[in-house]
Structure formats: C-alpha cells, structure tokens
Amino acid sequence: MTVLILTGQEDVTADMVVMHLNAASVPVVRLDPADLTAGAALSGEYVHGSFHGHLSTGGRLVSIHGLRSIWVRRPGVPAARAAQPSAWLTEEASQALYGMLRGCTARWMNHPDAARRARHKPWQLRLAQRSGLPVPATLITTFPQAAREFAERFPDLVVKPVSGAHPQEPPRAVPTSRVAPDTDFSAVAYGPTLLQRRIAKRADIRLTAVGGTLMAARKETPADADPDEVDVRFATSDVPWRPAEVPPRVAAAVHTYLREAELAYGAFDFAEDADGTWWFLECNQSGQFGFIEVETGQPLARTIAEWLARPAPRDHEQTDGRHTVTP
Amino acid sequence: MTVLILTGQEDVTADMVVMHLNAASVPVVRLDPADLTAGAALSGEYVHGSFHGHLSTGGRLVSIHGLRSIWVRRPGVPAARAAQPSAWLTEEASQALYGMLRGCTARWMNHPDAARRARHKPWQLRLAQRSGLPVPATLITTFPQAAREFAERFPDLVVKPVSGAHPQEPPRAVPTSRVAPDTDFSAVAYGPTLLQRRIAKRADIRLTAVGGTLMAARKETPADADPDEVDVRFATSDVPWRPAEVPPRVAAAVHTYLREAELAYGAFDFAEDADGTWWFLECNQSGQFGFIEVETGQPLARTIAEWLARPAPRDHEQTDGRHTVTP
C-alpha cells in the first residue's frame, strides 16, 4: 500500500515527511498534477462492475486501488506544464485525476471537499462557536450602517479579508489591521468587510492538529509591542515559538471542530488574552508547519508521516463479487 | 420560513417553480449572487456564541436563520455586476455569501460540496457501478497503448469529454461521437480521453430525481436512425419524450446513488438497449427539466416546489444557550 503525495517538486516541507516515510519503509509516490500528460500519466478502466486505475510518474506505476492515503500538500494546477496548456486541458486533467482518486478508498489529508468548505471564514466562525471555542465578536457586512453600529459597540476593532490571500500571482497575504471606530464606513457598501473585536493579546497560539494529535506552540507578545502590530505574520518580534500545553476544554472543542469539518489536518490560530483565554481566529486546513517544527522541535512531520502510513480502510467489496457502497 | 433561490433574473425554469411556491403561499426570495454589492447586500454578526445574518435583495430583507431551503439553480458569478468587478471582489463576495449560507440549517438542492463532487464523471461511473447500475465498459486514459487495447476488446466505441462542457464563453457542449477501432490513438498522450463501448440503443432515457421522487421519460430511437447520431442532445429526431415506468431495480440503484452522492436533485441519462437494459451514461446534478415537463406533462416543477417548501430541520440549539453541532 502506497502513500500518494500531491505536490510540486520544490517542497521542502513534503521532503521532511517523505524522509520519515522512507525511514519506515512505506512506499511513497509524489505526483504533481501540473505534470499530467508531460511526465505524469493516468489510466482507469470501468469494466464488468469494477474499476482498475493507475498513475504513472517519474517512471513509476502505482495502482489507485493500492493507495493507502493521499496527502494533498501543494498540488500544481493540473496539466499546467503540458506542451500546450489550456483551460480545457486543465479541466479535463483535473476531472480525470481527482475523479478517479475520489472513487478510491484511500484516506485523505485533507479530502478536497472538506478542504474547500474549510476555507470559508464565515463558516469557520460559526463552526468554532458551535464547537465551543471562544470567537471574538465579528461582523461581515456590506451595510455601512451595520458597520457603524458595530464600531460603536466594539470600538477596538481590526479589519481583515473575508477570503484570505489576495488572488494575484503570486498570492499576496493581506494583513489584519486596526481600524479606528470613527472610520468612514461608507465604502463597506462596495465589498464585504470583516470587522472583529481586537483581542489585546499576551501571545499568539498556533495549534496544529494531525489526526487526533494536537500540538500547540506559543509566541509571547513583547510587553513593549506596538498594539498596531496585530498580525503575527507581519510582526517584527523575534520572540521564538515555544511548545505550549493545550487546555483540556480547548482540546475537546478542537476535536469537535475537526470531526465536524472532516479534516485530518488543521492549523488553528488563536490569540491568548490577559486572562489566558484562547480566542479562535481561524483554522487553515493547509497551514504551514515547518517553521513550528524548527522552532519548537515538535515532531509534526513525523506525526503526519505516521498518519499517512496507517493502513487504508478495508474496501467493502464482498467476495461474492457484489459491491456495497463505501462512504 | 423562506425559500431562497440562487439564480439569474432570466430563468423561466425557476419561474415555473416560483409559480407553484406562490400558489402555496410559501415565501420565496430570489437572489443572484452577481448582484452582490449592487442591488444585493449581506450582513452577518457573530456575537456571544451565536450568529445572526441577513440577505437583502430587491428591497426585501430575509433572515438567514429563517431559510427553510436553498435552491442553487443558475447563480451568477458573485459580484459580477458590481460597479468595479474584480477577481478579488468575486472571491470576497463568494466566501461571504456561501460561507454564511453553509453555516445555516436550511436544506440544499443541491449542497455546493455535493454538486461539485457530482460533476466528476470518473467518480460518477464508479458510484454507478457500486450502486448497482449497469455501466458500459469505459476507459479514461492518457496511455495510447491502453486506448489501442481497449479498442481491440470493444471495437464499437464512442469518445466523449471527461469533464463536460468546453469552458469557453458561452460554454459549448462537446458531442459524444463514434470512433473507429483503427483510429490512431497516439494523441491520447496529450490529454485524458474517455472511450466508452457504444450502446446500440432503442431509446434514450432521462430519469429526473427530486428528493425521493423519480420520474422517467423515454425518447424512442427511430428504426432508421443514423447510428452515428449517438448524442441525443444533437440528434435530429422529432420523436417526443414520453413518460416511462422506472424498473424497480433501477429505482433502488438510483436511490442508492442519490443517497451516497448526497444529492436532492439529479438528472440521469441512460441508453436503453434491445434487451430493455438501462445503461448509465451520466447524472447531471443541475440538468434541465423544463423540456421534459413540457413534452411529458410530468409535474417536475411542482415536485421541486414541494421539496423546497418542506420545513427546515430543527436547529439543534438548546434553550439553555449552549450549542450543539448540527451536521
């Protein structure tokens, strides 16, 4: 049984995981969907009620039936490196590859449907509430009047994008920024705006979940930090990330979140306030972990490798030749 | 409790359903995501562990909590008609709208995740096999040698796109066509190709599923039909669609398919052979039904309206203020 990693060739984070899989003698195939039709190939046959499919890349042939797990790491755009790339070829190659893989019984980190749903920040906030995580008061609106009233109730505010990175090439992260309560909110009418009560934070928390394993890291906010430096990704602090204990209530809520979101991997960002409360900011289903592993020594790559190496669920095909549906 | 229909303004098929909902005095709001920020607006607030959201369009305001069902009919690209449209605004508006709607308890026809998955033809074929529907022998491949061997085993073949319509503007349907077994298959290496055993058909079958209700229509193939006219969408026959009985085995398999696919609506295409067997060709989760209703008199629009009008599942929020997760 083979582990399939969908990612580009330049991916040192994937290299870390592959190293652990190699050490455990677990077969791995690494495929970049961008290589399809030029370097990577696929074939699947539906005959007499059953399916037999294969992928080929780098001179290796792997049976789709023989996949134990699929790690969707940083896959390229399907067929992007074909001799004559086109939107049509990308669509055909995408449907062929992911359509075949979706029909197999391998375990996914993360399943494409769960990954796509998990990117919706409004959905994240609601699920976090329902899972029992504290969520800072938040408004997403195109009504200027709603923004004004919210700013009166919660004068210490930040603004951030609803969707995440700006879709330019390369994608540009848009920093979370403070916004003054007397701001002119009339431009809110021209695009959805996410306003959130600013948490006066004592530390940033990054909690990485791999299957049922939770590992938290904490980066203390310096006492003299500029309160306008809201976004840890853009902060100038050189305080390192340190391992942190996960409070049991947070752990229980995170497990609920992951189960409902059907995620095998998630990188949660929290802001820790002066009372020690961890406020949910977001959960990135494909968040980086290399920098956390380097600074804390937490064995994230090894834990991912162990999750990927677990056997696939049994195929529910029965020996009498009939098939039952596998969910 | 309101029915939300996501579609463009020019949609006579939606008009048919709205007419039935109006007749039953069920409140309906019709919103085109393309109108967001210019004509349509949204707002959602996450405070103290709960969510309150609203949509506004055409001067009407509707609570997201008060939606009983959401019909994703032919929604426009979010914010496409904004004063200054952009990829970024579309992404922000899409995440805001669908992110809020995904968090609510309304029933979907069809849920965006189920709809997206259901478009993958390789996945459809595998699920049809597993559900017990006869599937013509099919090969999807980028290996020319695999195509040649398949053509030797199944010399009477058709070729069709893996993904569906060509993504030009407006989308162009690519007809299914016959392919001679001595075809030069070397070009298969440049793009995934779907080859399928041609069913010598006696009729085309369109089975429309609305919730648990199945309605089939049959269009007989004229005895003198050109066997090269494989694709009913492009055929010149003026034989009308007529209502047909659904064989019990097909009905059971279709119910399994819909349950596993988590689809509330599906338009199945079958080819009926000389033995009366219905061969699964595809299931279009957003297939048109107006032409079937017009020719057969089957009450498809009314059945959809009835499905949409059913009450939403109860919100699992408890009266003590705690929240449990609703799946």
Explain how this protein is built.
Two copies of one chain form a homodimer. Chain A has 327 residues and is α+β, with helices and mostly antiparallel strands. The first copy, chain A, folds into three domains: 2-110 and 308-317, 3-Layer(aba) Sandwich (Rossmann fold), CATH 3.40.50; 116-134 and 199-285, ATP-grasp fold, B domain (D-amino Acid Aminotransferase, Chain A, domain 1), CATH 3.30.470.20; 137-198, Dna Ligase, domain 1, CATH 3.30.1490.20. Helices cover 27% and strands 29% of the residues of chain A. Chain A contains eight helices and 16 strands. In chain A, strands 14-13-12-15-16 form a five-stranded antiparallel sheet. In chain A, strands 2-1-6-7 form a four-stranded parallel sheet, covered by helices on one side. The longest helix of chain A is centred in the N-terminal third of the chain and has 16 residues, at 87-102. Chain A is globular. Chain A starts with a strand and ends in an 18-residue tail after the last helix. The model of chain A is unreliable at 316-327 (pLDDT under 50). At the A-B interface, strand 3, strand 4, helix 2, helix 3 and helix 4 of A face strand 3, strand 4, helix 2, helix 3 and helix 4 of B.
